[in-house]
Structure formats: C-alpha cells, structure tokens
Design goal:
- The protein is an alpha+beta fold and 226 residues long.
- It is built from four helices and nine strands; from the N terminus they run βαβββαβαββαββ.
- Strands 1, 2, 3, 4, 5, 6, 7, 8 and 9 form a nine-stranded antiparallel β-sheet that branches.
- It is globular.
- The two termini are 33 Å apart.
Length: 226
C-alpha cells in the first residue's frame, strides 16, 4: 500500500465562534481540547513520536506595519511545547494553523506510510462574513483523521468534544490519505491529500463561508454525528 492509499476515518468539526472557545486559547486548550485529543493519540504506539507544526504571526515591534511568522522551533506533544504556541490572555499573536502528526512526518517518510493519526486546526475567522456571523460561516475547522487499519472507534470521544464546545456540526466519512472524492451531486469535493485539506473549495462554491451554515447539505455524503 502506498503512502497516499491508506484509508482514514475522516472527521470535520465546525467550530462555533459565538462560544468563545477557540482551541488556540490557553484555558480552552488545557481543559477541553488537549485532553480529548490525547485520548485519541494514546491509541497509537507512536504517541511519543508526535510532532506539531504551528503557524502564528506577530509584530516584532509595536511600530511594525506588518505581522511576521513566529519562530517556535521544534514542537512535540508535551506541556513545554504547548506552552510555546497556545495564546495567553491579551496575547497579540495571531493564530492561523495547527497540525499534529503521529508519528512525525520524518518517520512517515522513512517507513513510507501516512500517519496513524493526523489532527489539524484552522482559524476560519478571516473568511467568515462578519455581517451575519450568527448564521453564516464557522470560526474554526478541526480535522481529525484516524487510520482505519488501527481498528479504532473514537466517535464517542469526538462527539463528547463537540458537545463541550457546542460545535455547529461534526461529520464523518471514510477517505484515503491522498486525493479525496466527490459526492454524487458534486457538492463536496476533496482534491488534495488530508494534510492539505482547507475549507476553501471543499464545497460547491469556492468559499464555503458564503453560504448560510444551516443551508449546507451534509447528507448523504457525510454521516452527521453532532
């Protein structure tokens, strides 16, 4: 089986910004997200080989006109690394994206196999229509991908997390690590690998945030679990 052919349980969690529970905030990460994700990661024998990639921006000086990417160094799944990237109260950094590989991408390359578990978090706020934020768009997108050959059922863990954060919707499907697939009506499409999944272009319109969230058609392509 090639790197891209491995199949995954593919979950999308659409975050509700009205709850003020973004995963990159220190309190929420420590009390809600990290414990839930860790439950899933512990099922992999590679848990201690998990690595993170986090993209954040900040102004080095108050006088700077533009934001620059933060240099966070090597990050693993431990308290020391989480302390580096999570945003504290009144933190002026701007969070953009988080990705967790279990095992790390370098090991995946060596063994020529995609990761057991992949988790990503994307800040969707810049794409949301602020004039009607109650009904349109979602503030963050969480992707959880678990290799099917691990023979795990983490749906209850993900449902519990979704309830705690009052997610707008959480959905499930099976897909390969490589190119995804179109649904029968070509409403949903995944033309990139799981690691390159972004909200822009996944729905029939280029920007999914242009559609009132309650008008999005999830079934029958997705199984709605929350």
């Amino acid at each position: 089986m090639s790197f891209s052919e491995r199949n995954f349980q593919f979950y999308l969690v659409f975050g509700n910004g009205n709850e003020n529970n973004e995963p990159w905030k220190e309190e929420q990460w420590k009390n809600i997200y990290e414990p839930s994700f860790k439950q899933i990661l512990n099922f992999s024998t590679y848990f201690d080989k998990t690595a993170l990639r986090v993209l954040e921006y900040s102004k080095k000086n108050k006088e700077d006109q533009y934001f620059s990417a933060e240099k966070l160094g090597k990050l693993a799944w431990n308290d020391k690394s989480h302390e580096k990237w999570v945003l504290k109260t009144n933190d002026d950094r701007k969070f953009t994206h988080f990705a967790s590989w279990t095992p790390t991408w370098t090991i995946c390359e060596k063994i020529d196999n995609s990761p057991d578990i992949y988790i990503s978090i994307s800040n969707e706020s810049p794409l949301t229509n602020e004039s009607n934020s109650q009904n349109r768009g979602f503030s963050f997108l969480i992707i959880i991908a678990i290799a099917t050959d691990l023979d795990l059922n983490c749906t209850e863990i993900i449902q519990s997390l979704s309830k705690k954060i009052n997610a707008k919707r959480t959905v499930f499907n099976i897909r390969s690590w490589g190119k995804g697939k179109h649904d029968e009506t070509e409403t949903w499409q995944f033309i990139n690998s799981i690691q390159d999944t972004i909200s822009y272009g996944m729905y029939k319109t280029e920007n999914i945030h242009d559609i009132p969230f309650n008008d999005l058609k999830f079934e029958p392509y997705w199984e709605i679990i929350h």
